[in-house]
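no rush on this but wanted to send it before i forget. theres a chain ive been looking at and ive put its sequence and its fold in token form underneath. i want to understand how the tokens follow from the sequence so walk me through it. thanks a lot i owe you, the record is right below:
>
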Amino acid sequence: MNDYACDWPIWWAEGLQAQPEDLDLSGDLEEKVRAWARHFHEHFDHLSHWDCDQAKQTHARLAREIEAELTTQIGRDLEVRADLWELRD
């Protein structure tokens, strides 16, 4: 779940932010997650929402890719569930 001013948008079910070192992710996936958060911050505003439809679609595509990779890397131990509030209309 992305959040304002958060560069690591992965959370525990209890609402606390997970830390990268808690998850033992590959370096590539960790960078992809950080890039996804940067994309959110660059293209989403809490009042006007997405600056263009292409940015919203890119964000959704990246979210699906990240969710699949997270499931592959940690899904055997933890449930992976995306909360994509920023894509709801």
Summary: The chain has a mean pLDDT of 90. Strands lie at 44-45, 49-50.
